[in-house]
Write a structure and sequence with these properties.
Elements: H1 2-6, H2 18-30, H3 34-69
Amino acid sequence: AFHLIYGKETFLYVLDFLPALLLLAGFSALNARRIAIRILVAALIVVAGGVNAQTFGHAALFVKGEARRAGLHDPVDTPVHVP
C-alpha cells in the first residue's frame, strides 16, 4: 500500500522491508550457514543505505527546485550533492 501512495520516493517507506531483514537475521542465528547469511545481510545494509542516500538526494533536489520555482527563498543555500 505504501508503494501506491508514496510512489518512487522509496526512502519514505524503507522500514517496509525491516520485518524481512529481521527474519533473515533471526534465521542466521539458527542456521548452519550463519556466516554466509550474515555476509548477505551486511551487503544488503550497505546497498540499501547507498540507494536510500541517493534517493534522498534526488528528493532534496526536487524539493529545492520546486521551492525556487514557487519563489520561496532558501535560507541555507547549501548545494545538495547526489552521489
